[in-house]
Protein 1
Amino acid sequence: MQFVSKKAHIDKLSTPCLVLPVFSNSKQAEVTEIFDKAHNKQIAAVLKQGDATGKAGHTLLLQMPAGSKTKRVLLVGVGEQGKTSANDFNKAVSSSINTLKSLPIKTVCSALLSVDVIEKDNDWKIRHIVLKSRESLYQYSETLTTSAPDASILETCQLLATNDCTAKAINNAAATASSIANGIDSAKKLADLPGNICTPTYLADTAKALGKKHKSLKITVLDEAKMEKLGMGSLLSVSRGSRQPARLITMEHKGGPKSQKPIVIVGKGLTFDAGGISIKPSSGMDEMKYDMCGGASVFGVMQMCAELNLPINVVGVVPSSENLPDGDANKPGDIVASMAGLTIEILNTDAEGRLILCDALTYSAKFKPDVVIDIATLTGACVVALGKHATGLLGNNDELANELLGAGIKAGDKAWQLPLWDEYRPQLKSNFADLANIGGPAGGTITAACFLSRFTEDYKWAHLDIAGTAWKSGANKGATGRPVHMLSQFILDRC
Ligand code: BES
Ligand code: MN
Ligand code: ZN
């Protein structure tokens, strides 16, 4: 769906459907009042009857009398006037699109920009109208045949300009938001694909296709022989147990001056995690196809940078492998040598994410990064600690951490910082190698980050554990596209 600005007098609007906000207290928004005056006070009557409540997200579709230039009006609740929260506003957007998407309507005109939202400006409102609408319209269809739902025919959403928001400002903000939404959708699509389709080779091909589409992107794919030459013994030890060969994918967006050091984002692209010899319980194991959500988010962010032609240098790195049990798989007690030279005792083969990430992080130094951010569904412990709402954030530089926390708050795609103190380091001590790949049950998210920190000493680094935030379980099982929005905001703030 496209989002464009619209300048019009609300009382003379010609549209198949107008989305109008209603408040839960009796006084209504000026747009709603002006429209209603020109239309026989029908809305006032409906409100009086109690059919429209103004409760955030409550909708009521009105058919206008024959001959009316506005064919339909969708009343949508935004809570109490002056008290509309970000959450209320988002609910209103989502539920209005959920109502509209099954109707025979191609174009809608939304008056939601006229609603004041607590502590949020026009840019925020436009961003969230676009993102929440696109979220409601997202539909996985790749492997559905007879059960595929009909695609919505919604094509255009016009956003009515207000006194304090020009048409140009609306179109600019909507274009930015649409590219973020495209990135989120791409990340979700990749993540929702099953492990037998979305393999490391599939991800590499997807990167190449992205590179063909966008001039600013340079794609490099390393196969196992090349990784072997670089000494990536840790990464390769994970893929040895799988018939699918590993890939190390890099996507370079060169939008800034040559001398500008890039932001490097590194995403775990584990296309299926059975745990290896330390095999996982079978219940819910299907969800381990999402163990490449970090990598998927890197794809989404790179696409966003390229689409918007952002004037900045960003490098995406995705180490990709499967983790399966096999006669040639890692065994508990095995010791491998990483690219950085450190030897690692593999005490649990299910702690494989850090094994592929450590070599990708060492490799990332070659880009002479300004900062490196890795994104990974790394630990179940993070789900226990922070649940599904906050991404875990750790790192070796508080300025960078604060920048990411701020971007997360702006985007509504939030992170929460955990300590990365030296006190945790002895938990990774091994009698037989430089470090062990697990640190026991205490502070599992922190010791995982501690492990990674041994490979990131030469640059400013942050780690995002998205095990809890990257997907939803249950009836609405599927990827969320997080943290594409947070990272996009982080990059936009630096442009
Ligand atoms: N991919 C998992 C982490 C995970 C678990 C993500 C649950 C999402 C939901 C990771 O590879 C893993 O298995 N981690 C182990 C580490 C442990 C063996 C130290 C875990 O969290 O159990
Ligand atoms: Mn694992
Ligand atoms: Zn994993």
Protein 2
Amino acid sequence: MREHSNESARPEGALIDRFQRRVTYLRISVTDRCDLRCVYCMSEDVKFIPRAGLLSLEEIVQVGRNFVDLGVNKIRITGGEPLHRRDILKVFRELGELEGLRELTLTTNGTQLPRFAHDLHAAGVNRINVSLDTLQAERFRALTRNGKIEQVMAGLDAAQQAGIPRIKLNTVVLKNRNHDEVQDLVGFAIERGFDISFIEEMPLGVVGDHDRAECFYSSDQIRSDLARHFELIPTAESTGGPSRYFRIAGVDDTRVGFISPHSHNFCDHCNRVRMTCEGRLLLCLGQEHSVDLRRVVRANPGDDEALKRAIVSAMEIKPRGHDFDLHGQPVIFRHMNHTGG
Ligand code: SAM
Ligand code: SF4
């Protein structure tokens, strides 16, 4: 932790940081494990955290509930692959009951949705993000180091059949691996009535398999590729996350978003914090400032006030922003599956 408080104009109880940004959005990583090994997310010989180090399901719910008491109105469950955590529906069901929570969402690779889509919707999940970087089976296998695209397609079908109203595709674009597919992916999103967000790769952890600077493909490049086929109309719409959205002329149901940590830094409007699967509260995706909530929860069993105090005081160390650098050594040694995307 590198910064210390020097300003404190915060109404009591509210989660407002030193730069007057209000935190209303919590992302919780519930596991670092996954059935896929996406090349930008993990190294091939990834080592997972011993299970005893993970927050229990009860502890996850306790943290979520206290954040909601403090004004958080949106929680995203992520990972790793969240649907691989045993009994994870319990977390969705309990968080879904909280008054004050406006939105409970999920980011998933989709492979387990045939099993879970119905129960997730019943628990109050109305919006999900499903990661899909390509429509080509061979490419999918290469990008995920052995995944089967049919499983994701079956997951998307299941989510629609279960009646989940908003589904967004998340696509990480890498030069020479899938950048030539952005038009096809938008076409697929339109055909199915999905939103789609294109994400610039972030340098989180050493991944081994490719040079991140060489693979960089900016949101502006994607936009100009798409502009040859679609008329993109800027909108001020937001889903409370970092995407900048565009509508497509003549298309009602699909928005195209861009998450551009390199080319269009979004830190000034940051409203989110993340909790890793070990209970480390990260105040910024691209910095190491953190508070160990697992220690607080375990040292004070059942004491919500101690937990709230720790959360409120964590706002003091939320940094102004990230400083990702694709060309130097990674400054963040956590991988995305650990952090929660
Ligand atoms: N397993 C789930 C999935 O793939 O959707 C949830 C966890 S995953 C870490 C969350 C999101 O982070 C995914 O959309 C994934 O594509 C994205 N992601 C992973 N590593 C990334 C990186 N280095 N840069 C940018 N996005 C990344
Ligand atoms: Fe698994 Fe998601 Fe990471 Fe891919 S991006 S390896 S699906 S956690």
